[in-house]
Request: fold
Amino acid sequence: MPSNRPVAAFFDLDKTIIATSSAFAFGKEFLHNGMITRQEAWELYLSKAQYMLVGQSSEKMDSTRDALAQMVAGWKVEDVQRITRETLREVVAPAIYAEARELIDDHRAKGHRVIIISASAKILVEPIAEELGVDTVVATEMTVENGKLTGQITRYLKGEAKAEAVRQFAAEHGYDLDASFAYSDSATDIPMLELVGNPVAVNPDRALKKHALVNGWQARTFKNPEPLIQMPNAREVGIGAGVIAGVTALAVAGVLIARAMGGKDSGRDDKRHSA
Reply:
């Protein structure tokens, strides 16, 4: 018998709704406003390049979280909100997948509640949600004292913690999880995806792609726009353009080699399993 309870659609953000990382997207704008140093801007670029090319392990996510928390300590909340909203259309809006926009609109047209749930800081996620017309954000939270971020994280939504946030939200608002939807690109979100009756892997990493295939989950590929890794301006980070290009080329080459080796290893594993 169909349930009369409302249906929700939970969307991860990075690489699911946007073809970039919300945690790194505003680095150049923070640099221009004197909130980070050139060295920090360069480190953000390298972290973003690695994230976009190969993703992040659970351990890398934790180290990135700690580094970013330390970086933002002392920032005025009003400055962060002003910069993100002023530059959103230029920095993030072009990276929103057209397919994600259409899917969000489709869920709303069906009367579903759309929720963006992310491991990124809520202060960075909220303006993106506003751009999409989504009024509910569940994301990582940081303490604020006297109008400034302290760098202390009070709620970090990764893995099982994200799943627990979905359980709590559904219980508080009476949503039917068996009829609800969840979208993500990362295997770290498998606990969340397993909670709903309609899990969807979007541009999945290797582990999630395998898990989705084994469990009969739907998988979708969003292609518009293509993910981009923009090199920082050499003058901005105080490093020669040749060095930037060289480091980027080495990073890409390393990723391609790792993928090739991974494919060979996977093939060997398949042969061993079929033997």
User: Anything to note?
Assistant: The longest helix spans residues 241-274. Strands lie at 8-11, 113-121, 137-145, 148-155, 181-184, 198-202, 218-220.
